[in-house]
Each structure stands twice: as structure tokens, then as C-alpha cells.
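Lecture notes, part 5. Sequence design as translation. It can be helpful to think of inverse folding as translation between two languages: the language of shapes and the language of residues. The source text, in C-alpha cells, appears below.
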């Protein structure tokens, strides 16, 4: 069932360390670990060809956008749009050089469920790390602050879980199907620190945050930003079908609400992960056949 050994997983262990270092001193530890992860990726085949070039260009564009705050609005908008397009292209693995590393081969978790497989890759995670490190100044700085963020996010999770899971039940996408599998111990860190971090940094920490600062009426701007970021979040999930995209749009609204209540990407990550874990443990995963 588990297809990859430690040498193959070394780049992703380093990538996970780079993610965790975003909240730890020294200040540039994440950059050194990210560089080590990329080098290890080339040695193990997790990266090849022009992958490092794409990542370096993304880093340069992220830095340019960061420094454009004092420039004209036109330049900042152009850089922001370019960064968004580049991020989506990487996230959807549209650029060459980023093969997937299969960790868990296709397996059926419960009768009647679609086969589930777990694979890891660099193109979504590295942009998430770079954007979080360079563009998101507001972040959790202490365990006490984390407790406050989780407390503010908890009611949002409850509302999102009820609405999203009821929607997917009614549409026949999942059924109530509680289970336990040791695969959760592989799935959970990959989902939280790779998937949730990357998606929340882009859709909430970048798209929602930037749009919410447009214009003088900040409440109206935040509402528009919430809608736009949620719809975009649903759109990138269209490959999974319209039901999946609709559920993702509704879930994205919940993640954005959690972000707006705290101004912390970690709040969106917490609700995102908790909802995904609810799906994984209590309902058909990933979906009914």
C-alpha cells in the first residue's frame, strides 16, 4: 500500500521542515530548508528539468510584488495578476519538471468509495511557503495567540462542516461512513502543511487579503473579496466535478470567514484541515463511486 521509502520521501521531509520553520527562528531557516528540499528533489527525481527555474522565477516575482507597495497602483496590479496566474499554473501542475511522488497506492478505504491514493509534489507547496514568508506579515507568534485563533475559528468550522457535509450528502457525493485507518497519520500532515497551507496562503492570505484593501469602504471590499476568493477556490476544483467545485466554493467561504475574523492564515488552515479531517474520518472518502 505504501509505495515510497525514506530516500524518496527525503525531499518532502525537508519541505515539511521548511513549512514548520515559517513559525520558528532563526528568521531565514525556512529558506535554507527549502533550498535543501529542492536540491534533494533533484537527487531523488522529485524534480527535474526546468523545475528550479520556475521556482526561482516565482520567488523573484513574489519579491517584486512585495516591493511594489510603494510603486504605482498599475504596476502592483500587473504584478499581482502575474503572481496569481503563475501560482495557479504551478498549483495545477501545468508547468514541466514536477512529477508526483506516490506515497500510498490506490486503495479503497470503504466499500463503494472511489479509490484513494496519496501523492506528493513541489509545485503547490513551494509557492505557498514563499508567499507566506514574503507576503503575509500577520501570523501566529505564540501558543497563546494560536489558542485565540483556534477559538475564533471553532464556530466557523462547525457552521462550515454542517453546511458542506449536508450539501454533499444531499447531492450524493458522499455518505455517512465513519472509519479509522492508520493512513490518517500520513494523510494528516500532508493535508495540513502542504495542501491547506498552500491553498490558504494563496486564496485567503493573498487574494482575499489584497482585494479586501481595495477602496475606502473596507467592509464592502472584504465582502467582495470573500466572494471572489471563494468562487476562485471552487473553480480550481472543477476537475473533480461540479458537485466538488460547489462544495469547495461553500467551504472556501468558511475559510475566508475564519480569516476575516482573525486576520490570520492559520485560522483558515485550521478550519480547512478540520473540515477535510471530518470528511476523511466520518464520510465516504474521497467520494462515492
Amino acid at each position: 500500500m505504501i509505495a515510497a521509502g525514506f530516500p524518496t520521501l527525503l525531499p518532502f521531509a525537508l519541505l515539511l521542515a521548511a513549512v514548520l520553520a515559517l513559525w520558528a527562528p532563526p528568521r531565514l531557516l525556512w529558506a535554507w530548508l527549502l533550498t535543501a528540499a529542492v536540491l534533494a528533489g533533484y537527487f531523488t527525481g522529485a524534480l527535474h528539468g526546468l523545475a528550479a527555474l520556475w521556482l526561482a522565477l516565482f520567488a523573484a516575482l513574489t519579491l517584486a510584488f512585495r516591493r511594489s507597495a510603494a510603486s504605482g497602483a498599475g504596476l502592483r496590479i500587473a504584478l499581482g495578476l502575474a503572481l496569481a496566474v503563475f501560482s495557479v499554473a504551478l498549483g495545477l501542475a501545468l508547468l514541466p519538471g514536477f512529477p508526483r511522488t506516490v506515497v500510498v497506492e490506490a486503495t479503497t478505504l470503504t466499500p463503494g468509495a472511489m479509490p484513494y491514493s496519496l501523492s506528493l509534489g513541489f509545485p503547490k507547496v513551494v509557492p505557498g511557503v514563499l508567499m507566506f514568508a514574503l507576503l503575509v506579515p500577520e501570523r501566529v507568534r505564540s501558543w497563546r495567540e494560536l489558542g485565540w485563533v483556534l477559538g475564533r475559528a471553532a464556530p466557523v468550522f462547525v457552521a462550515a462542516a454542517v453546511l458542506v457535509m449536508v450539501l454533499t450528502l444531499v447531492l450524493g457525493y458522499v455518505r455517512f461512513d465513519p472509519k479509522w485507518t492508520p493512513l490518517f497519520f500520513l494523510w494528516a500532515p500532508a493535508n495540513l502543511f502542504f495542501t491547506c497551507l498552500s491553498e490558504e496562503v494563496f486564496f485567503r492570505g493573498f487574494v482575499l487579503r489584497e482585494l479586501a484593501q481595495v477602496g475606502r469602504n473596507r467592509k464592502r471590499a472584504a465582502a467582495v473579496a470573500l466572494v471572489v476568493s471563494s468562487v476562485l477556490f471552487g473553480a480550481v476544483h472543477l476537475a473533480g466535478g461540479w458537485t466538488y467545485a460547489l462544495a469547495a466554493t461553500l467551504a472556501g467561504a468558511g475559510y475566508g470567514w475564519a480569516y476575516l475574523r482573525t486576520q490570520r492564515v492559520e485560522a483558515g488552515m485550521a478550519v480547512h484541515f478540520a473540515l477535510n479531517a471530518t470528511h476523511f474520518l466520518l464520510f465516504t472518502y474521497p467520494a462515492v463511486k
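The translated text above is only one of many valid answers, since several sequences can fold into similar shapes. The chain has a mean pLDDT of 95.
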